[in-house]
């Protein structure tokens, strides 16, 4: 490392030796290049990001932004960096939280950075690095476009540190980043520093999925013949109507040959008597039982404890299932903690909820929650109050809570190191049907097991049921990576932001640089990049011709004419090849011209004052919100009514929600709601005519709830009356606050543009009043969670 003094100093501070991929990535950063690091979960990718922070702090007046896909990750990274560099050096921006935004190190969500880029914030001027953590989120169909917008529009001199899970098309991803941003190196590692062993938990034993030649535990190898026998007996019995040997088989013909598989000794709770009776009835008819005994959630806890695989995460693909699992463990007397640990757990939990009233504690089920924590067991899902999730995460990190039943949201990079991960089922309900887990989902879930510097090995466990197919499981376990597929498409907000910064042709050609277009036709990206450079040259030729006279002028005009023909020829070639992104952009432009957010000819549109207002509205319903502001759809609403209406416009029910739309009382809200729906219908028809994606109809499921909260109803009564989870209510309150904030800023922009100044000024003030009215109580307490 003698040629890399910063890296030598940085590595000397660490308590461990850097791996080859970490060294390579850090060297590229010190050389002044950007990097895309793709490596397995838990391999130490964040060390590369920490080196970028170190480099930024060595450079005078240089700043670094650390972005994360979700607020929970942003909060976690913020606290880690504060502990490392001091609170004065680190800021946090997550939309609803603004802490030291001018600090040299700022943690933020990706949406915040995208908005800063479009606003041409001064904070970008001295920016040296941006860390894009979990950059494979670029493939997310709802939010993935934000990552592409950042990569495309961030100033070229800013170096990117992009961190990704192991994706199978990392080279393609890296090639695209190099094409659009310049010097970018791809650093790949498939080595997992902590080996991951695969298992299957049956009703009586924990069996390895793979075994070596000597029958011992291996990370890869041949499928365990004992599992093949179990699969064969279960499926054969079902096919043949009960013929065959008993499938209460656990270890079967023998014990496991490794120390991680202990017998559960048949101690699996209350269902045992009923199952035994069923087996006895089957035998009395001369049949062997054909169903495998179900492994309960309490059985899972017991087995993990007996095999010394705690702390562990059990993924259960429903919120209710997670909560029920904790209750089952309590009822079955599971206890995983010592008295000293229980005392510390209670101390931490009570400190976090110290400001809650007795009534709040009652309605939030604090007693049962703490009872589970004290036994070392907890649930973790999006429906929990953020404070509860924070406590669970802290206690799990300290290995005081030993077992967490969680939904897959926990696999999104939150730092909760586990020795083992168990997956209850290999399929999940998507709102319409049960679908099998993909290899990418399986990789993300099991990647939480075994963390570097903490564990020497990790263990992935699938809970056996008669629907498990070993070949499918082996495929999931053997697939170490998954592809990232772009979900990028131009939107109304994106279009006006682009056209405010550049002309139509440059904006269209910029969109041709997207990863979506790159994947459609890799060659067109290089061509579009050349075209963009030629357009810049053409602009300089035209400027030179305008300044010149006589013959240093005829010569420039000839050059410009020749280059203009070349540019047009290149544009036709690109359009003839694919041009799908560009054509979508053109359709959005036509739509916005018709709605008067743009004006002028289709090839030379300019952003109107109403387009300036649209620039401040983000989200799937950007155009609907802007149209409502423009046509005064919210007239007659008070602060509570506006809060409720913004909840209508931001709320997206989960697919398995059965919440019926409930409007607040009063004619004013009903009339405003009708105007909003009428506007949505008109925009939906317009999108269909322009062959553009259509948005879901606004849903009033939480309108009455938000209205009541804004008017001062207590959280106890609200939760009891509605049955909604506290965490869900807080989350949608934050979404509502975010939209209210956007409306206030958009209206203020409209006032500056002299658009209906009195009305928009009043609406901006009303939006801020509505924001204050719902940012109280547990919503306010959760504002930084």
CATH architecture descriptor text of the largest domain:
3-Layer(aba) Sandwich
The average pLDDT value, as a whole number, equals 84
- State the name of the first-level CATH class of the largest domain: Alpha Beta
Taking pLDDT < 50 over at least 5 consecutive residues as the criterion, the unreliable ranges are 235-290
State the end-to-end CA separation.
40 Å
Biggest sheet: strand arrangement: 4-3-5-2-6-7-1-8
Q: Please give the domain count.
A: 4
Assign the CATH topology of the largest domain: Rossmann fold
The radius of gyration over CA amounts to 29 Å
User: Roughly how much helix do the residues carry, as a percent range?
Assistant: 40-55%
- Provide the β-strand percentage band: 5-15%
Using DSSP, what is the number of strands? 21
Instruction: Please count the helical segments.
Output: 32
